C-alpha cells in the first residue's frame, strides 16, 4: 500500500540507525565518563555504540540484499524486513548491560512496527510503549532512575501528546525523554552521589533525538549538557566495590526454548545481579554480573546452546599485559592492496577497507589483538571511521592494552605518521611525533562522479573527475592528469616540501612519473614519492607535507 508522507518506512529506519550510530559515536566518551551504575566501569557509551553498530549493519545488509534481487530502482525493502533486521542485529551485537537493554527496546519497537501495514503515528506510539514494557520485563530487578525510567517517560509523553503524525510522536517522545533524564540524578543514590545523570538514559535521549531528525530531516535542538563529574572511588563503592560487587560480567548468546530460559533466569538471579535476558523466538542474549563465571556459563549449557561467550573481569583494566607481548605495534586501516604491503613493510598490522564496506569496530579490535603488543597506535586513515576506531580502542583498553588513537583522516596522513614512527622511544613521545606528522600533511583525492550533483565547486556531471582537497570538492575536470595537476598546483601554492602520490588500481600509464615531473618543473625544492596503492575506486591520493 502506498506510503503517506507521515508513515515510517524502511528508508527512515535505515536513516535512523545511521544517525543513531553517529550520535552515539559523538557522545561515546561523555557517556562513558558518567557511567557509575550498575558498575562504574566507564563503558556504557562504548557498549551502546557497538550495539547500534550491529543493528545498523544488519539494516544495511537488508538493503544490499534487496538491491541484489531487484537491481537499482526506486523500490525499497519492506518496513517489516528493516525493523526485524534492526532488532536482530542489536540482539546478536548487544554489549554490556546498557547495550542489552537497548537491544530489547529496539526489539519491542520492531514487534509493533513489523505487524502493521502502515507505520503511522498510532503505530509508533504503540511501538514505544511496547519497547518500554519489554525492557522492564527483561531486567530481573528493575530500578528507577535508569534507562528504563527514561524509556517509559518517552512512551508516556508520546501517548499523551495526541500527535497525529509520526514526526509529532517522535518529537514528543524525545522531549519526554529529555525531561526525564535530569530527574534520574535524584532517583538513584549512586547517580546523586556522583552528580551525574544515568548514562544509559543519556544514550537513549541521543537515539530518540535522531529519530526526530530521521523522520523530519531537521536536527533537534542541542540539549543542555548534563553534569559530567568524574566519579571518585567513594562514589562508586555503593554498587560494585572491590570488596562487595561481583567480579565478572558474563554475556552470551543462547539458543533455547522459552521454558528453559525461564529456569535460567531464576538460576542466574541466584548467582549474581544486573541480570538482563533479552530476545525471543529461540535466540536470546544473556547478561549477568557474577563471582562464579563458570557457573553462569554452565547454567546456559543446561538451558540450551550458549555461544559467543564473553567474560570480563571488572578489574581487567588494572591487570598488566602478559610479558610475552611485543612492546609496541601500529594498526592501520588502508584502502588498497598496494598500501597493505607498504604499511606491512613499515611494521604495521593492516585492516583493508573495501569500497563501500568500511571496517567495523570488531575488525579493528581483532587487528589490535593480532598485533599482540602492550602498546598500540591506531591509524583509522578515514574521517568517517573516527567513532568506530574510538569504540574499538576503548574496548581493547579494558583488556590491559594501552591504545593511542591518532585521528588520521586519509591514508597519506597515515603514511606520514608511519614514516616517523620509532618503537624504541617512549610511547607518548612516539604518539606526539606521529600525530604531528599526520597533522602537518594536507591531503587530496581524485574521484569520478557517479551522477550529476551539486558540489562546493559547482555542478558536476556523471563521469567528471573531481579533485577533493581536505574532503571538499575543489576542482571539477574531465581528465585525470589535468585535474591532478590543477589540484597539486593549488595545494603547493600554500607551500610544501614533500608530495606523496598514491596511484589507484586503474590509472593512465605513466601518470605517477608525469605528475612527479610536473612538480619538479613547477615547484623547486619539492620532492615527490610515488606508491602503487591499488585503490579500486579512487584514481589518486595526494599528500603534501
Description:
- By secondary structure, the chain is of the alpha/beta class.
- The chain is built from 20 helices and 16 strands.
- It has helices at residues 10-33, 44-70, 79-93, 96-113, 121-138, 147-161, 166-180, 184-187, 189-194, 199-216, 233-240, 258-271, 293-303, 337-345, 361-371, 386-397, 411-419, 427-439, 480-492, 511-522; strands at 248-255, 272-280, 283-290, 305-313, 326-334, 348-352, 373-379, 402-405, 442-448, 453-455, 458-460, 465-469, 472-477, 498-504, 527-535, 540-544.
- A 6-stranded mixed β-sheet has the order 13-12-9-16-14-15, with helices on both faces. It has a 4-stranded antiparallel β-sheet with strand order 2-3-1-4, sandwiched between helices.
- A hairpin with a 2-residue loop joins strand 12 (465-469) and strand 13 (472-477).
- Helix 1 (10-33) runs parallel beside helix 3 (79-93), helix 1 crosses helix 16 (386-397) and helix 6 packs parallel to helix 10.
Computed Rg: 25 Å
Average per-residue pLDDT, rounded, comes to: 85
With strands numbered from the N-terminus, the spatial order across the biggest sheet is 13-12-9-16-14-15
Low-confidence stretches: 1-5, 224-243, 316-323
Number of helices: 20
Could you give the count of β-strands? 16
What fraction strand? 15-25%
Amino acid at each position: 500500500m502506498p506510503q503517506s508522507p507521515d508513515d515510517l518506512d524502511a528508508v527512515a529506519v535505515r536513516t535512523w540507525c545511521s544517525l543513531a550510530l553517529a550520535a552515539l559515536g559523538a557522545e561515546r566518551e561523555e557517556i562513558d565518563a558518567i557511567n557509575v551504575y550498575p558498575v562504574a566501569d566507564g563503558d556504557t557509551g562504548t557498549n551502546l555504540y557497538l550495539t547500534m553498530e550491529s543493528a545498523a549493519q544488519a539494516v544495511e545488509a537488508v538493503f544490499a540484499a534487496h538491491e541484489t534481487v531487484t537491481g537499482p530502482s526506486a523500490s525499497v525493502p519492506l518496513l517489516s524486513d528493516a525493523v526485524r533486521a534492526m532488532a536482530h542485529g542489536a540482539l546478536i551485537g548487544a554489549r554490556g548491560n546498557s547495550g542489552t537493554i537497548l537491544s530489547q527496546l529496539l526489539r519491542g519497537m520492531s514487534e509493533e512496527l513489523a505487524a502493521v501495514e502502515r507505520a503511522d503515528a498510532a503505530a509508533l506510539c504503540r511501538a514505544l510503549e511496547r519497547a518500554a514494557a519489554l525492557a522492564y520485563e527483561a531486567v530481573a530487578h528493575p530500578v528507577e532512575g535508569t534507562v528504563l525510567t527514561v524509556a517509559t517517560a518517552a512512551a508516556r509523553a508520546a501517548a499523551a501528546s495526541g500527535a497525529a503524525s509520526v514526526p509529532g510522536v517522535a518529537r514528543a517522545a524525545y522531549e519526554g525523554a529529555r525531561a526525564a533524564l535530569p530527574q534520574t540524578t535524584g532517583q538513584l543514590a549512586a547517580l546523586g552521589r556522583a552528580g551525574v545523570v544515568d548514562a544509559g538514559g543519556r544514550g537513549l535521549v541521543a537515539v530518540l533525538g535522531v529519530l526526530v531528525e530521521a523522520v523530519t530531516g531537521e536536527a533537534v535542538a542541542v540539549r543542555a549538557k548534563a553534569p559530567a563529574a568524574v566519579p571518585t572511588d567513594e562514589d562508586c563503592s555503593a554498587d560494585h566495590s572491590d570488596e562487595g560487587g561481583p567480579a565478572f560480567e558474563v554475556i552470551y548468546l543462547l539458543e533455547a526454548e522459552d521454558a528453559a530460559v525461564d529456569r535460567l533466569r531464576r538460576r542466574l538471579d541466584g548467582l549474581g545481579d544486573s541480570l538482563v535476558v533479552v530476545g525471543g523466538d529461540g535466540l536470546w542474549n544473556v547478561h549477568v554480573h557474577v563471582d562464579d563465571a563458570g557457573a553462569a556459563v554452565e547454567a546456559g549449557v543446561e538451558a540450551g546452546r550458549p555461544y559467543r561467550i564473553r567474560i570480563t573481569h571488572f578489574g581487567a583494566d588494572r591487570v598488566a599485559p602478559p610479558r610475552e607481548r611485543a612492546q609496541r605495534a601500529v594498526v592501520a586501516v588502508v584502502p588498497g592492496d598496494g598500501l597493505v604491503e607498504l604499511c606491512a613493510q613499515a611494521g604495521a598490522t593492516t585492516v583493508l577497507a573495501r569500497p563501500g564496506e568500511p571496517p567495523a569496530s570488531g575488525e579493528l579490535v581483532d587487528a589490535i589483538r593480532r598485533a599482540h603488543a602492550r602498546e598500540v597506535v591506531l591509524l583509522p586513515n578515514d574521517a568517517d571511521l573516527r567513532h568506530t576506531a574510538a569504540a574499538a580502542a576503548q574496548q581493547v583498553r579494558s583488556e590491559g592494552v594501552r591504545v593511542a588513537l591518532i585521528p588520521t583522516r586519509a591514508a597519506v596522513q597515515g603514511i606520514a605518521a608511519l614514516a616517523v614512527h620509532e618503537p624504541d622511544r617512549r610511547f607518548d613521545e612516539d604518539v606526539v611525533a606521529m600525530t604531528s606528522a599526520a597533522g602537518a600533511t594536507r591531503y587530496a583525492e581524485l574521484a569520478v562522479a557517479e551522477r550529476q550533483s551539486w558540489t562546493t565547486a559547482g555542478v558536476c556531471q556523471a563521469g567528471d573527475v573531481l579533485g577533493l582537497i581536505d574532503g571538499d570538492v575543489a576542482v571539477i575536470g574531465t581528465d585525470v592528469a589535468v585535474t591532478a595537476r590543477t589540484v597539486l598546483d593549488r595545494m603547493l601554492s600554500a607551500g610544501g616540501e614533500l608530495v606523496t602520490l598514491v596511484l589507484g588500481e586503474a590509472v593512465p600509464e605513466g601518470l605517477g612519473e608525469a605528475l612527479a615531473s610536473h612538480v619538479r618543473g613547477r615547484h623547486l625544492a619539492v620532492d615527490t614519492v610515488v606508491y602503487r596503492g591499488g585503490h579500486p575506486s579512487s584514481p589518486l591520493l595526494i599528500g603534501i607535507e
